[in-house]
């Protein structure tokens, strides 16, 4: 049997993170939810996700910094989640998410 694809969900909104996780689990993905940037950097090496769903507006270390630090270590795809009320920092998300 093939190994499940792993998705790390980084979002400080527990309701959103749980909902995403439930949908992905239903489609046979293994998920790991983390609620802040520091925890994401700790969990990343042991969970080894195939993709990261990353909220930019996190407490403490923001999503931009999390993305930069993960990018320095690995080339895992990162899908940046931007809510309607979040800021764009003049296109920075597109530059660091690649």
The major sheet is characterized as: 4 strands, parallel
Mean pLDDT: 88
Oligomer: single chain
Uncertain segments: none
Strand order of the largest sheet: 2-1-3-4
What is the share of helical residues? 40-55%
Describe this entry's structure for a reader.
This protein has 4 helices and 4 strands, in the order E-H-E-H-E-H-E-H. The chain has helices spanning 14-26, 37-47, 63-73, 92-96, and strands at residues 6-10, 30-34, 51-55, 78-81. The protein has a 4-stranded parallel β-sheet, sandwiched between helices. Strand 1, helix 1 (14-26) and strand 2 form a beta-alpha-beta unit. The chain is globular, with a radius of gyration of 13 Å. The model has no long low-confidence stretch (mean pLDDT 88).
Q: Tags for this entry?
A:
4 helices; 4-stranded parallel β-sheet; 98 residues; alpha/beta
Short synopsis of the structure:
This protein is of the alpha/beta class.
Write the layout of secondary structure elements.
Blueprint: E1 6-10, H1 14-26, E2 30-34, H2 37-47, E3 51-55, H3 63-73, E4 78-81, H4 92-96
Parallel strand pairs: 1-2, 1-3, 3-4
Helix pairs in contact: 2-3
């Amino acid at each position: 049997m093939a190994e499940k694809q792993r998705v790390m969900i980084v979002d400080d909104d527990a309701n959103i993170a749980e909902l995403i996780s439930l949908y992905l689990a239903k489609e046979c993905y293994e998920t790991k939810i983390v609620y802040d940037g520091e925890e994401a950097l700790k969990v990343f090496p042991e969970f080894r996700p195939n993709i990261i769903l990353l909220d930019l507006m996190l407490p403490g270390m923001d999503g931009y910094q999390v993305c930069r630090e993960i990018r320095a270590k690995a080339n895992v795809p990162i899908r940046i989640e931007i809510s309607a009320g979040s800021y764009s920092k003049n296109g920075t998300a597109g530059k660091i998410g690649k």
